[in-house]
Amino acid sequence: MRERQELFFPLDNSAIFMAAIAGRRGPFIYQFYVELRHPVVLPALEMAVERLFPRFPYLFVRLRRGVFWQYLEPLDKPPPVERLPPAPGLSMGSISRKGLLRIYVRGRRIACEFHHAITDGTGAITFLKALVVEYCRQLGIGRELDPQILAGIPQPEEAVDPAEYEDSYNRYFRPGPPVPETLPPAFVIPGWRMRFGYRETIGTIPLEPLLSYCRGKKVSITEFLVAVHIATLQDLYTALPAKKQRKSKKIISVQVPVNLRKIYPSRTLRNFFLFVAPYIDLRLGFWSFEEILKRVHHQMQLGLEEKELVRQIKRNVGGERNPFNRLVVLPIKLLVLKLINALIGVGSYSGSLSNIGSIEVPPPFDAEIERFSFLTSRAHKTGANIGVCSFKETLYIIIGSTVGEVEFERLFFRRLASCSLPVTVLMERYGGNE
Q1: Which of 19, 45, 232, 385 is most exposed, with the fewest beta carbons within 10 Å of its own?
Q2: What CATH number is attached to the domain comprising 138?
Q3: Buried b vs exposed e over 58-84: b needs ≥16 C-beta within 10 Å?
């Protein structure tokens, strides 16, 4: 095993905030998993984890507290491969003592849970692909493969590239731009929340008819799904009694993570994302789906402009760089960050939709995989968030929900079907107690 070089890793800019405000109602823990075509061979998976352990020192870490900042401390040994609970929980317990990356197995499934303090979706899926490839090689699959075919998938024999754990937010910080405006409080899914439970609903759509539909509308898949998300929330609002409508918030806003690596050159496998938040204002009346789709398309295009994104970087990184803030002790920092989140945080959003995009694994490894899936972190406030990914010819839409009723999921997939798309709901899983 390669000797561990780093004594600690400072938190990146996003991690500082998420580690500070994480709690039971919003743990910032999400899960990627792969369903294989054959049952998982545990010794081969354990060997794959052991071989990859020194390759990802910035992921195999625990959260520690210093005088002024929290930091990430590398683990001394790989975490054990644990049995995956029968239903999603997405709660790691005491993250200060245990690692922020957990690896689970059950049947044909390999699942990895990540705390957002260590990485975003890009880093997470990069690790999972590396794990699946190494697991297959432990079984004798693809051992003689040309290394060029595995380009982009980290291998155990490679040296760790410092660019992989760079804080790219600081690299692209500029002090001049004004900070972005804040949105008012947003409408959220009505109804009671499960205190500990978490429901997973998976729907699938063949990619070809979906792409054909989106091309006809001149929008991206993400823009289309965000519009469906907003329209579904509007359906829930209009179904409320008049008295509850009057008391409800009038902004419907969906938070859409943006992979900044597509805009700013970066090889980091830590957090490097920001958000675009398309919205409608219900005070303007009822919005047709075509109106919502057009608005989402243009808001996404504007939000993805570099001049808009750099404003968010300025807001987020500026406070961290302030000399006075650097001298404030950690307990006060954590309190201030929690207050900021309460004032301008998740309350400005009705939900989130995160599209990881196409997940590609080279042959012969792809033949061993049935599908990938992505379950977002549980969020008590918004109630339901959506993860999206595609593998081969199929798009997977995964709704994670703490809402007691399933009306949001029912309306969401019904609206997709109303667009003449062949939608199949694979399954629902329930986790925890109410």
Answers
A1: 45
A2: 3.30.559.10
A3: bbbbbbeeeeebbbbebbeebbebeeb
